[in-house]
Structure formats: structure tokens, C-alpha cells
Design brief:
Order of helices and strands: HEEHHHEEEHHHHH
Strand order of the largest sheet: 2-1-5-4-3
Strand content: 15-25%
Structural class: alpha+beta
Distance between the termini: 31 Å
Shape: globular
Largest sheet: 5 strands, antiparallel
Radius of gyration: 16 Å
Number of strands: 5
Oligomer: single chain
Amino acid sequence: MIDYDLDEDGSVLLSSIVNSPIASVISNPRLPDNPIIAVNQAFCDLTGYGDDEIVGRNCRFLAGPATEPWLTERIRQGTRDRKPTLVEILNYKRDGQPFRNAVLVAPVFLPDGELEYFIGSQVELDQDAVGPSSSRHHHAVEVVRTLSPRQREVLQQIAAGYRSKQISFNLGLSEKTVKMHRALILDKIGTHNIADAIRLAVEAGL
């Protein structure tokens, strides 16, 4: 894995994707063309590209002749609006093989509310997977149902890209309470990775 120009908070974010089994990248919208600045091994394994071929490029390099332009535009609109966006789109691996995958792009904000990074992740879909009826959506909904109402609120805030201090302010909770809920959420989801929690929240429709 290669990464560069990650500040201290970025390093924490990086650690949230490094061991994830989900193909993930981090991009920096403060640089021209929002380039990828970090990538995990799962992303390299999925796409067939080496990390040195990925870092420094915009994620659209995975697009090809049959990639749906309206879905590409939906992702662009999500980044412009700074909102989590999940689409099922046709992309291409390094060897030219097309594959349909569920692409998530979600913002991450600094404590002062400024946009810091985007987390991107991809899950290759089975041929018979269809949008909201996919097994991943149903699984995510079932997991979210096990959370308390307050935990769902915290998870929604996490998925929106907010840090603990911001969530504390938004929900009127102490930062310690927010961190306690976050730990319980990750335990129920069965992950230590915030990036995985964000994806599950968006897949569930939060």
C-alpha cells in the first residue's frame, strides 16, 4: 500500500481501511482532480492494478466503454454535494474484464466542518444482484435493526462523515458517550473499521 500527504487524522483514517476485506481507497479533494492518496490490498486484488498504478489518479480510471455515464454523474454529484453516494456501476479491471460493482463514495470532514477526504470502496456484485434487493442490502438492514435508536443516530452521523466532536455537538451528547456508542456499534457490526461501518450504513439506506 502507498500513501502520501496524510496528516495525523488521515493516518487514523488510513488505518481504518488497511485491514478491511472491502476494496477501499482514500482520495484528497483538496488536490487537483481529487486523486487517490491511499489504497488497500483488497482494492489492488479486485482491480488487478498495483498500488503504484492507482495512487495519484482519480477513480474514474476504472471506467470503460460500457460504463453508465448517468451513474458516473451521480457519483460526481455526490462528491459535489458532499454526501455519501452508493451506485451499482460497470467498471473494468486492469486486464479489460468488465465487472459490476457497488461503489460507495463518502466524505470525511475536519472538526471545523471543512471537507478533508473521501473514502471510496467497491464490492463486486454477483450477476443476479439487483440494487436494493441485493443480499448486502438485506444484511445491512438486519444489522442496523439490532442497534438502539441512539446508536442508529450515531451511525448516521458517522456515515455523513462527522468526527466524534462534531457528532457530540450535533446530538447533544458528551464526546465520551459518542465514543462509547461508536465502540458498541462496531462490535455489533463485527468490525474495527469505521470505513466498513460507513459502507454498511449507506447500504442499509441510513
